[in-house]
Amino acid sequence: MTTVPSPPARPTAVRPRVVARTGLCAVLAVNAAVVAFFFVRAGFAANALIVLGRLTGLYGALVMAFQLVLVARLPWLDRRIGMDRLTSRHRWTGFALLWTLLAHVVLITFGYADGAGVGPVTELVDLAETTEGVLRAVVAFGLVLVVGAVSARCARRRLAYETWHFIHLYAYVAVVLAFTHQVAVGTTFTSSPAATAYWYGVWAVALGSVLLGCVALPLWRNRRHRFRVSAVVPESDTVVSIHITGRDLDELPARAGQFFLWRFLTKDRWWQANPFSLSAAPDGRGLRLTVKAVGEGSAALRHLKVGTRVFAEGPYGAFTTLHRTRTESLLIAGGVGVTPIRALLEDLDGHAVVVYRVASERDAVLHDELRDLALAKGADLHLVTGGPVPDKLAPLELKRMVPDIADRDVFLCGPPPMMNAVLGTLDELGVPERQIHFERFGLAG
What we know:
The protein is α/β, with parallel strands linked by helices. 51% of the residues lie in helices and 14% in strands. Helix 2 runs antiparallel to helix 4 (83-116).
């Protein structure tokens, strides 16, 4: 395949991921200080429980808005941090949100109950019946509890991604209900025109980010590029490559190593979105993804017809040469994890070593392409076969194949057990964390 890759990124001392994370933390810290400032200016209630309840409610609102930004799929953040890490942070801030809102409900209820001389349950029912916005807040809190419950690992593993995603859409209902509650009874919200403008601005940025990254940008790109299936090429009994064509693909900001959420618009698959990496560097004329059949949906892809329309969301991911810190590289692939590795090899300059780990030679998908690429670029290719025991990527074995491993950037992609084992090996070999690049493709965290 002839490709015209984008100019390779040069190693940089300024780490884009660190810059983006620092920026996010700084924005959150500044907003936390602003919230505290407006809270103090609004004055305090006589009851300490009510004071603390209002403060936890305000910080709960701020965390909720911050969560929306984390999953808004904004290109600047995604390319520097990665959707997997942003999703993970969204998950953990979600639990922080849950406990913050729980504290808000408990403190406010007990505070007002103490002043009225009634029980907390009676007071909560009375507030919901008589105070505007409280019933909406109770419903919002219930939705947050449901979303939090399905985010627990034990529940997440039992749910299909589509089911998990559908339940999480109710979080947006909770956001709207929480906002209307804040408008109706938030003393800090209405304490001054500046406070009101601030909170309207916070919610406008948060909801606007979601609309931009998750709705407007995908719709605009698909309308512009008109993606369609141009070829379906079986690579083995279980693996198939799908070639995508479209308009103005030279202006699509995709990089080797990134992935899209692909929806193939057939009668039985239009509602399913699956994350598949590009298996070749974008060349401005077409895109290629290579998929292994691991379920009924992915197995059906080999029967796609040429001309099938495609709705593609992306490109996403920070698994690119943007994060290079060294001129020489080591690329480690396991199984079908070779797809972004093969694309990255096209995009890298400098000497590269490729280690491809599979159970047997017949499982080495795209091996011929890797071999030809390695030969053309002067890279070293090692095909490692055999069972998982003994570990053929253990420290001694990997050091033997790549003696200068600690002086290279390491790009890693493969099944989770293999990735975890290799990450342990890299740590033992003293490879600095900043030189290790990987991405986990579980969108639900």
